């Protein structure tokens, strides 16, 4: 049972790691807002096939909490992906993959500041190591760029993206007690609705790039794997080995994103990338191992 859970989590994080790589591949084949719109058209159609019975059962709670569920879709789904796909117009997929590793550490920080969640010395040390790793990536190994505030615009967008997703994750503590399929379906529908104005804006400013053949392959990937397959397999993995152990696998996402960017996109892996990955993963492992025991 455990080996099967490990396989589920491996495939889930590999698929999520591919989201950054595929977003970079989309450049010139489909624009960010068009990609986000079609991603959720595709994903909602697939999610609806497995969630209609649960949606019927959960409808009273969905109606009562519709504003919160709408916010989940608008921020956790739409804003995150729009920022990520837009950032990849300006920065490398490797940079974006590594910088997203700041999400777990930012969740620790938000929990401590907002809710007084206990933080150990090891978690603080891990948090600092992760920040250093992200700074190495964002500055391309040259810390003087941080002092001069000349960060790549794409890196800035990814860091905003990290803040948005950490906030979304924290807000899940208030999710209503509905079936996991309903919790996937309603925010996905909300994401589709909130993406429409952004797509219309992109079209009106003549920045839209409608998908060509490669663009449709990109849409198929992001609609099937990060949006659906990863979610289902991650839930199955958590059921198999528990949330604390399963959460460690999320730390593989930046590593997978980097490896795929090198193998598929042919991006150049530089020394500062390797140093940043080691710093980030070391920081997260130290924080997880040294978390306060409950």
UniProtKB/TrEMBL annotation:
InterPro entries: AA-Vitamin_Transporters, EamA_dom, EmrE-like. Keywords: Membrane, Transmembrane, Transmembrane helix. One of its GO terms (cellular component) is membrane. Belongs to the EamA transporter family. It is found in: Membrane. This is DMT family transporter. The chain crosses the membrane at residues 7-31, 37-55, 67-88, 94-114, 121-139, 151-171, 183-203, 215-234, 246-265, 271-287. It is a multi-pass membrane protein. Residues 5-137, 153-286 form the EamA domain.
């Amino acid at each position: 049972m455990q080996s099967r859970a490990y396989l589920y989590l491996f495939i889930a994080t590999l698929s999520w790691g591919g989201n950054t790589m595929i977003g970079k591949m989309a450049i010139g084949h489909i624009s960010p807002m068009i990609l986000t719109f079609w991603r959720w058209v595709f994903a909602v159609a697939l999610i609806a096939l497995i969630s209609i019975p649960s949606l019927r059962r959960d409808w009273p709670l969905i109606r009562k909490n519709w504003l919160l569920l709408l916010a989940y879709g608008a921020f956790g789904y739409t804003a995150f992906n729009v920022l990520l796909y837009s950032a990849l117009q300006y920065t490398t997929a490797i940079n974006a993959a590594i910088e997203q590793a700041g999400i777990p550490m930012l969740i620790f920080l938000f929990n401590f500041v907002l809710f007084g969640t206990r933080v150990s010395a090891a978690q603080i040390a891990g948090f600092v190591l992760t920040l250093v790793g992200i700074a190495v990536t964002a500055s391309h190994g040259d810390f003087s760029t941080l002092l001069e505030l000349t960060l790549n615009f794409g890196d800035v967008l990814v860091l905003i993206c990290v803040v948005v997703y950490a906030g979304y994750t924290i807000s899940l503590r208030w999710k209503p007690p509905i079936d996991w399929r309903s919790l996937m379906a309603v925010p996905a529908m909300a994401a589709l609705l909130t993406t429409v104005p952004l797509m219309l804006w992109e079209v009106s400013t003549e920045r839209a790039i409608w998908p060509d053949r490669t663009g449709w392959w990109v849409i198929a990937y992001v609609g099937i794997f990060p949006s659906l397959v990863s979610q289902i397999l991650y839930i199955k993995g958590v059921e198999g080995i528990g949330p604390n152990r399963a959460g460690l696998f999320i730390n593989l996402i930046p590593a997978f994103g980097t490896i795929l960017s090198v193998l598929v996109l042919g991006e150049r892996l530089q020394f500062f990338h390797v140093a940043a990955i080691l710093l980030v993963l070391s920081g997260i492992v130290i924080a997880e191992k040294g978390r306060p025991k409950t």
